[in-house]
Amino acid sequence: METQFTIITQNRKLLYHFLKHTPQEELFKIPEGFNNNIWWNIAHVVVTEQKLVYGLSRLPLNISKVLVEKYQKGTAPKGHPPATEVEEIKKLLFSLPEKTKSDYNNGMFTDFKSYMTTPKVELNSVEDAIAFNAFHEGLHLGSIMALARVLKV
Q1: What whole-number percentage of the chain has pLDDT above 90?
Q2: Is 72 helix (H, G, I), strand (E, B) or coil?
Q3: What DSSP string describes 94-131?
Q4: What digits encode the pLDDT tens for the residues 96-127?
Q5: Which are the contacts of 85, defined by CB distance < 8 A and separation ≥ 6?
Q6: Beta bridge partners of 68
Q7: What is the tens place of the pLDDT at every residue in 54-83?
Q8: What is the rounded CA–CA span in Å between residue 108 and residue 7?
Q9: Contact between residue 91 and residue 78 where contact means Cβ atoms under 8 Å apart
Q10: Does residue 134 have a pLDDT over 90?
Q11: Cα angle: 51, vertex 57, 58; to 5 degrees
Q12: String of b and e for 106-120 (b: at least 16 CB within 10 Å)?
């Protein structure tokens, strides 16, 4: 599992780079042909990790219901988030995977509800969820890279 946590950490560093270095007007822009923006993809990754790992393990999420409602699967960007939310996501990008790793190493995940993902990958354990999360984050990094290319950032 150490490799999965390393992959997630490295991906989060790349996401943080986009979050920190993309001008705000581009961060929230939805280019023609796209249905979301760089910001939404980053916030969505934060929410999805919690839902996949903690939610399917029947544990409380470590994020607010507000963030879940705004960025979970099936949502779309709605305007510009408050600056406080952007700062919160910046912090959560790194603190949540660290907590997940610690909780995993401390045996916190003892129950799991099987789940079929949209790409038809069945998750039957927390290990499956963590591995799928790394894949999912990579998909969204690819989307962000495509958005950045179109926006020329």
Answers
A1: 99
A2: coil
A3: HHHHHHHHHHHHTT-------EE-TTS-EE-SHHHHHH
A4: 999 999 999 999 999 999 999 999 999 999 99
A5: 43, 67
A6: none
A7: 999 999 999 999 999 999 999 999 989 999
A8: 21
A9: no
A10: yes
A11: 85
A12: eeebeebeebeeeee
User: In whole angstroms, how far apart are CA 77 and each of 28, 38, 137?
Assistant: 8, 10, 18
Tell me if 101 sits within 8 A of 62, measured CB to CB.
Answer: no
Q: Residue 115's beta-bridge partner residues?
A: 123
Where residue 153 falls among pLDDT bands split at 50, 70, 90? confident
Tell me the C-alpha distance between 21 and 14, whole Å.
Answer: 11
In the chain, the amino acid numbered 128 is: D
Joined tokens for residue 52 = 């996949």
Contacts of 13 (CB under 8 A, 6+ apart): none
Please tell me whether residue 64 adopts helix, strand or coil conformation: coil
